[in-house]
Design a protein that fits this description.
- With 124 residues, the protein is mostly helical.
- It has a single domain, classed as Arc Repressor Mutant, subunit A, CATH 1.10.10.
- Helices cover 66% and strands 5% of the residues.
- Strands 1-2 form a two-stranded antiparallel ribbon.
- Helix 2 packs across helix 3, helix 2 crosses helix 4 and helix 2 packs across helix 5.
- The radius of gyration is 24 Å and the shape is elongated.
Length: 124
Amino acid sequence: MINTHQNAANLSLKQLHYFVALADELHFTKAAARCFVTQSTLSGGIRELEQQVDVTLFERDKKLVMLTPAGHALRPLAHQLLSAAGDFLQLGSELAQPLSGTLMLGAIPTIAPFWLPKLMRLGE
């Protein structure tokens, strides 16, 4: 029986990034350049990912790289995970600086013409 929690803990965003890059490029050299790594580093990351999910993601030979049906099925999920990781980092960054961001100010129409011009000049 496979321990999915332990496998998930070993899954790296870097491996997913390599997978998505190779799935998009279908060329090891281009995908490695896109990830700013060597071709052997990219290949090793893909191999580790395939071992972790216990399925072949790419069919490869000397001239051609193609996604397997499993690779096609996992590609959208890899995109979602990388996007969620980006959202996680963005929110963490925003939470680290609580007094930054957009301030929304509203006023009822009867006092807005009198107070808002004065408040707007305070920021100048």
